[in-house]
Amino acid sequence: MFDGVVASLTSDRYGGATALVPAAVGLVRAARTAMLAERIPAALAAVDCAFGTGRGEAGVDYGDKLFWLSVLIQRRYAQICAEYDLTSSQATLLCAIKDEPRRMSYLATALGMTKNALSQLVDRTERRDLVSRVSSEQDRRVIMLGVTPTGKVLAEAVYAETTKRLPDIAENLDAEDQREFERVATAVVDRSGVSASTSS
C-alpha cells in the first residue's frame, strides 16, 4: 500500500510532485518503516476533520490519509512557487543546492528523479540563468550543480516563504492538535533522514 503511494507521489501526476518529494515521500516511507501509524491517529483524524476528506473514523487506512495529506502540501507548495514564477520541481532543485553545489547523481537520488528527468529539469532551469554546472574542485571530471547569484536570491526567498506558509495547512486545527501535528511531522521527517539529505 505504502509503495503504491510513494510511486504515485514521485510520478508527474500531480504537476511535478517531485517537488514535495523531500517531505511527502519521506513522510510515507518513514511511516511504513517506523510503523508510526499507532502514534498518529489523533493528529491525522484532526487533519481529516479540518480538511473534509471524510474518513476520520477508527480503523482508517493511514496510507490513504498520508496520500491526501501529501496532496494538500503539494497544492500549497505549488501556489507559493508560482508566485515566484517557478515550477515546484525548479524550486525544490534550487533549494537543494542553495547552500553548496551538489553532484548530479546525489540530486537524482535526493529528489527521487531519474538522471534523464533531472537533466531536463536542469536544462530548463539553466536557461533562466538560475543554476550552472561546474567541475568539482576535488575531481575535475565530476560535474556539480550550483546556483547562480540570481538563483541564490530566488532560492532563499522561496524557501523562506515556503517554511513560513506551509504550516497554514493546519490552521483549521485547534491549538492542541496543531502541536500534535507538528510533533508527529517532526518525528517522521527526522527519522526519514530527508531533511539532512536536502538541506545544509
Describe the structure in your own words.
It is a single chain. The chain is mainly α and 200 residues long. The protein has a 3-stranded antiparallel beta sheet. Helix 2 runs antiparallel to helix 4, helix 3 packs across helix 4 and helix 3 crosses helix 9. The longest helix has 22 residues. It is elongated and about 55 Å long. The N terminus and C terminus are likely disordered.
Q: What is the radius of gyration computed over CA atoms, rounded to a whole number of angstroms? A: 17 Å
Instruction: Indicate the overall shape.
Output: elongated
Distance between the termini: 32 Å
The biggest beta sheet is recorded as:
3 strands, antiparallel
* Uncertain runs: 1-22, 28-40, 196-200
Query: Count of DSSP E strands?
Result: 3
SS element count, helices: 10
Q: Strand-residue fraction? A: 5-15%
Q: Any key phrases for this structure?
A:
10 helices, 200 residues, three-stranded antiparallel beta sheet, single chain, 3 strands, disordered C terminus, mainly alpha, disordered N terminus
